[in-house]
Each structure stands twice: as C-alpha cells, then as structure tokens.
Amino acid sequence: MEHQQSIGQYRLIKKLGEGKLTSVYLVQKEDKLYSMRVQSKQDSDVQMCKLSQAFVKEISAFKRVKHPFIIEMVDSFIWRDEGQTARWCMVFEQAEGGDLYGRIIEKKEKASEKHAINWFAQVCLAVEHLLRVGIEPFTIMQQTIVIVGKQIEIAKIGGMGFIEEGYFGMNDVLVCPSRYYAPESFQGEHSAKIVTWSLGVVLFEIFSGGEHPFQANFDGKTYLSNLHRFEIRLNHVISGNSKELLKLLLEKDPSKRASMLQNPLVKDKIDILIKSNLLNERDEVAIKKQYSDINEHQDISQVEEEKQPQAMIRHGFEEEKLKEFIPKDKG
C-alpha cells in the first residue's frame, strides 16, 4: 500500500490512521475529498472471511441509517490489491476535524465545556436513532466519533461497531476497546446502558485531555476485573453540572445509570441546537421530530426494549447484502 496511488476511482492523499483490521485514508475523487476505510489483509483466509463479514454488517448498517449526526457513507466496493486479495472499502464524507482520538488523546488537548457538551448531545441523538431503528448497542470509542466541518464543528458517529479493534493513530499509540467497557461487560451483559457508560468515558476524556476516569495509567488487562474497586477521578476544572452528569453516566449499577437525553444539561443543548442556524432545513426538521419522539420516552433503554424484536433480526439483511455486493466484484 505504500506506493499505491489510487483505490478504485479515488486518489490516495495520505494515511490518517491504521489498526489491525482497517486503515483509514484521505482520498480525492474529482475535486472533492473523502475519508476511506480499507480492509486490512489478515494472516489467514478464515480471519479474512470473518473480517469481510464484519464489513458487510457495517456497510449494511450504514445503508439503513440516515441522520444529521451519523457520518454519511457515500460509496462501498470491493477492491483487489496488487496480490489480487479482495478487500472491502468504505468511503465517507470528509471529517475535517478527524476523530476524537486524534483530536483529544493524541494531542492531549482539553475541549471547552461548551464544545464537549455540544458534541455529547449530538452523539446522544445519533445513538438514540440507532437504537430506535434496531441497531444493536455497541461500545462508543474516541475513534468512532468524528468531527465534521471547520468553522462550525459537528460531532458524528463514524462507525456502527461491527469492526471493533485496537487502533493505532499516527503516533503509534494503541487504544484498546476495553478502555470504554462498562462494568457489566465483565459478566458478558449487553444492553443500551453500555452505550451510556462508554459515552461517559468519552465525555470525561474530552474534558480531561484524554485521561481515563478510573485509572491514571490505564491497564486493559486488569481494568474490568478491578473496576468495582475504583472511584471516579473527577477533575476540579469540570463544573458542578458536568460533574453530576459524569457521575450519572458512569454509575456502576446499570439500573441506576442515567438516561443520556433526559439530563437537563443535555436537553438545554439540544434546545439551543434546534433554535440555532447550525443545521440545514432538512436536518432541523429531522431533529425536531426525533426530539418530540424522545420526550415520549423516559429512558433511552426503553427504546431498545421496544425495538428488541427488530434488533434481534439485524443479521437477516446480511445475506441479502452479500448477494447484492458480490456481483460487483465479478463485473
């Protein structure tokens, strides 16, 4: 890939990041820039097949969801490299601000409280939409949230969680998914509350410049088994309202964990968002309708429970999508 000039119809500009499963590039088609996620070559055919299946799930999920705060997938295709290995490629609208991993953890920069809560509210709306349409809850990480726009920076969900991996940024620092796991993940539990927890970790990192809320020196090998003994490390620079929000999001008992969108601080940000000129007319209408629907529910987990039958059949569209995509590789 070092000497590769183009992939499909897209010219490679530079590498943005790399993990064991994927590499991310800035690419150009005609006069427009995009980000491209390319499937990495694996050690065995079995591993490659499993990763291809994960890409199919990810692509299918992106085809199902359209939302102002979910990154837009503009293209997907199979590309054969110089060794004739078939690799999936996904092309997205450009996220000029990169992901929060590069913005916060790599640079160790703290975001203002205003920016942090704005981004948090936007991502919460995206997550609620995913649950509502039946996408199974998944752990949110810094690299699954991207910043779109230069003057007005908007946070968007940049991944559906089917391709989850440790991620190396440009300084080769590894970020493990377990950093964002909820306490119940140790028992294998899986619910909408894990999303609430992982977003709480992300919000803390935004406030603190990449620090973990429970460990100064994060140890992914022992974190979950020892989490019950750790106390949240609330920074003194965080305001009282934000501290209370973090405490509610990072409640170890999932039954007591806060609903993300019922918090007054978050609701105020959404109200301001709707009344501002930040969104275009179509997106403003979509968010207004969504927020009206949200107010009929008291807890985001209720959405998941009501939509669980749909979430349970989320794999049903995968075979159909495979049949749809594979002929493109043959043509």
From TrEMBL:
Keyword hit for Acetylation: no
UniProt-listed InterPro entries: Kinase-like_dom_sf (IPR011009), NEK_Ser/Thr_kinase (IPR050660), Prot_kinase_dom (IPR000719)
Pfam families linked to this entry: Pkinase
Keywords of the record: ATP-binding, Kinase, Nucleotide-binding, Transferase
Keyword Iron: no
Gene3D superfamilies given in the database record: Transferase(Phosphotransferase) domain 1 (1.10.510.10)
Residue ranges constituting the Protein kinase domain according to the UniProt record: 10-274
Domain of life: Eukaryota
Record GO terms (molecular function): ATP binding; protein serine/threonine kinase activity
Protein name stated in the entry: Protein kinase domain-containing protein
